[in-house]
């Protein structure tokens, strides 16, 4: 009975989400708002990728901005220097990012907790310094500009679809977001995903149960960097320009904040976090330091008072007002004490 | 030329060593890396700069900066970390990142982003030591660093409070059972560690200028030095800080200056992977 209700909620969420996504471009006509919506979609992919690592495997990375940058720079360079089409550079960028992600993960994941955070931060910083200083390849502080739009899709004379305006990118990005959500669900419901959750909850216990801890973590890190590759490629072709400051430490913090605010270990949380922060940051575009001040304050407050983010709050709310009180308070206090996460 | 690089390295190294002490002291007591320590370095330098601009005597401005740094560290602990003692370590770390981001941008909001030079009475003068011409401010940095380290030695080994800090480093719960106020010990640790960090920032201000993000790399390098020396090992942090400064100074001579900060990052990665217990440390097995 309880399960049926749970299912009902998530299905309802999916249907509502689908309707919103479908009608959004008809409701919003201002190109700037469409631009923001597209940015949100890119951030959702990034957040889902980092959430797989932070929320589902319990490994925090502060190097994802660097991986995002690798995706963006590789697609930018392939399309400007070698004139490859978007449909070639996207998979290429994803493969390159995944490979670099594998190397970073393979080296970094030998470490745990704060040492892992510092190591990924060091990797991210090194990648950023490379973007900034390898001027012959990356264009130095100026970055790479004039990245072409994806080529026009033609199917005979029936269909012709070009990427000229912001709105033209919308269906493409929605498709990639849906794909990311689908893949994420597939991963977290697989045996591999459950192994990751076990590692997150208790690494030693997971090891004792025969889970290859290091291997599982590295695979998850690699998958997570593939998301960065896709997001980077979409970002570069959408904005037509990439420059190093986008991929500095602040970006890693932004993505991590999105995961934390939404609620780690939750797909809906990732979507909410990405949406909320992108809208706030666009609203405060003229005063970037104010924006970052708010980020910092949000991170502190969320960590102090609701470490489960928006989804955690919603869960508490649901328990208090909708469901059987006595049973769930026990569960809730357990959750609080052990620091367990829930979807 | 080589002597010049060496002197630069020693000066940089003493600053990194001072930074490393802050990380190590806090880690000793709470087993936690204060990610926002770099912002104490920045905050101290900014307050000193601001006081100097208000026509205060320079020594008073410097002291004011150090006090402000200590206060900043103290407040960080009192307002945020104290309420998160039972939270998972990662939450604490992320909150610390939040503090760092907040302080950096508050500084940018209040003081602006452009680098400013903190005044120093010694900057324009040079002295001849052993046939080498050295900027007096460099000599000043080294002397102050030595004095601070000596004072720290006295504080930790010769005073009652220092002994309480050492006891807390061994076992904070047992310390509390012995009738020592653990909260006070933690506060003092944060204040002293942060004061030392602020001194580092003020010493560097006249050479590398003062700006809101100055603490980011200084913090990372201080952290690198504390890992190199073995987390929690204060003498180790000193030696490692000097080593890091000298290596970085010489490496800058060989590679492009844009990659200067990458040197410390690579050293950090190598140390974490090869000797995570530090150059002088022992391995401790993780317990269930």
TrEMBL record, chain A:
GO MF, one term, reads: branched-chain amino acid transmembrane transporter activity
Upper lineage: Bacteria, Bacillati, Bacillota, Bacilli, Bacillales
Q: What is this protein called?
A: Amino acid/amide ABC transporter membrane protein 2 (HAAT family)
One GO cellular component, as annotated = plasma membrane
Q: How does it sit in the membrane?
A: Multi-pass membrane protein
The entry's keywords: Cell membrane, Membrane, Transmembrane, Transmembrane helix
InterPro entries named in the record: ABC_transp_permease, LivM-like
CDD domains given in the database record: TM_PBP1_LivM_like (cd06581)
**From which organism does this entry originate?**
Pseudogracilibacillus auburnensis
From TrEMBL, chain B:
Q: Which domain of life is it from?
A: Bacteria
Q: Quick check: keyword S-adenosyl-L-methionine in the entry?
A: no
**One MF term from GO for this chain?**
L-phenylalanine transmembrane transporter activity
Q: Give one Pfam hit by family name.
A: BPD_transp_2
Per UniProt, the keywords (alphabetical) are: Amino-acid transport, Cell inner membrane, Cell membrane, Membrane, Transmembrane, Transmembrane helix, Transport
Keyword Transmembrane, does the record have it? yes
Q: Which InterPro entries match?
A: ABC_transp_permease, BCAA_transport_permease
Residues spanning the membrane: 6-26, 33-53, 59-80, 92-114, 134-156, 188-214, 234-255, 262-280
Q: Where in the cell is it found?
A: Cell membrane
State the membrane topology: Multi-pass membrane protein
Q: Name one GO cellular component term.
A: plasma membrane
One GO term under biological process is: L-isoleucine import across plasma membrane
Protein family per UniProt: Belongs to the binding-protein-dependent transport system permease family. LivHM subfamily.
Protein's name according to its UniProt entry: Amino acid/amide ABC transporter membrane protein 1 (HAAT family)
């Amino acid at each position: 009975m309880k399960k049926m209700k749970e299912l009902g909620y998530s299905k309802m969420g999916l249907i509502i989400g689908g309707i919103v996504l479908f009608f959004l471009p008809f409701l919003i006509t201002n190109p700037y708002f469409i631009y923001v919506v597209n940015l949100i979609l890119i951030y959702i992919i990034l957040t889902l990728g980092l959430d797989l690592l932070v929320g589902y495997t319990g490994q925090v990375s502060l190097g994802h901005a660097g991986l995002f940058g690798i995706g963006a720079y590789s697609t930018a360079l392939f399309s400007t220097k070698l004139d490859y089409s978007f449909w070639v550079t996207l998979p290429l960028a994803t493969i390159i990012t995944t490979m670099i992600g594998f190397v970073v993960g393979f080296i970094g994941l030998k470490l745990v907790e704060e040492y892992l955070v510092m190591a990924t931060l060091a990797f991210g910083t090194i990648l950023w310094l490379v973007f900034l200083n390898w001027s012959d390849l990356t264009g130095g502080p100026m970055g790479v500009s004039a990245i072409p739009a994806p080529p026009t899709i033609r199917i005979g004379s029936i269909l012709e679809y070009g990427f000229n305006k912001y709105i033209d990118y919308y269906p493409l990005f929605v498709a990639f977001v849906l794909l990311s959500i689908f893949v994420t669900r597939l991963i977290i419901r697989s045996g591999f995903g459950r192994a990751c959750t076990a590692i997150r909850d208790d690494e030693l216990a997971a090891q004792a149960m025969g889970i290859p801890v290091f291997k599982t973590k590295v695979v998850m890190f690699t998958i997570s960097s593939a998301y960065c590759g896709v997001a980077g490629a979409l970002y570069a072709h959408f904005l037509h320009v990439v420059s190093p400051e986008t991929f500095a430490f602040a970006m890693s913090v932004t993505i991590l904040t999105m995961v934390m605010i939404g609620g780690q270990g939750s797909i809906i949380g990732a979507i909410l976090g990405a949406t909320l922060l992108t809208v706030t940051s666009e609203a405060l575009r003229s005063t970037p330091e104010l924006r970052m001040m708010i980020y910092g304050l949000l991170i502190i407050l969320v960590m102090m008072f609701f470490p489960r983010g928006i989804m955690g709050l919603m869960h508490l709310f649901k328990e208090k007002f909708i469901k059987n009180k006595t049973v769930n308070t026990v569960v809730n206090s357990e959750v609080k004490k052990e620091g367990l996460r829930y979807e | 030329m080589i002597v010049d690089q060496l002197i630069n390295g020693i000066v940089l190294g003493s600053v990194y060593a001072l930074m490393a002490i802050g990380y190590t002291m806090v880690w000793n007591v709470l087993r936690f890396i204060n990610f926002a320590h770099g912002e104490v370095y920045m905050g101290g330098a900014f307050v000193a700069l601001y006081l100097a601009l208000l026509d205060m005597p320079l020594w008073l401005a410097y002291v004011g900066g150090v006090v402000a740094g200590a206060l900043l560290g103290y407040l960080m602990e009192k307002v945020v970390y104290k309420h998160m003692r039972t939270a998972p370590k990662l939450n604490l770390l992320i909150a610390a990142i939040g503090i760092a981001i907040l302080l950096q941008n508050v500084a940018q909001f209040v003081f602006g982003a452009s680098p400013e030079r903190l005044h120093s009475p010694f900057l324009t003068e040079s002295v001849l030591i052993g046939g080498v011409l050295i900027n007096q401010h460099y000599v000043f940095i080294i002397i102050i660093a030595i004095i601070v380290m000596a004072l720290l030695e006295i504080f930790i080994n010769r005073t009652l409070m220092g002994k309480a800090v050492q006891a807390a480093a061994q076992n904070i719960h047992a310390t509390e059972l012995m009738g020592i106020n653990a909260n006070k010990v933690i506060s003092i640790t944060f204040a002293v560690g942060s004061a030392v960090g602020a001194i580092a920032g003020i010493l560097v201000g006249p050479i590398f200028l003062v700006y809101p993000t100055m603490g980011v790399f200084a913090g990372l390098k201080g952290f690198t030095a504390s890992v190199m020396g073995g987390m929690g090992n204060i003498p180790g942090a000193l030696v490692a800080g000097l080593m890091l400064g000298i290596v970085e100074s010489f490496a800058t001579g060989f590679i492009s200056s844009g990659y200067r900060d990458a040197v410390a990052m690579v050293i950090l990665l190598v140390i974490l992977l090869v000797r995570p217990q530090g150059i002088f440390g022992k391995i401790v097995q993780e317990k269930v």
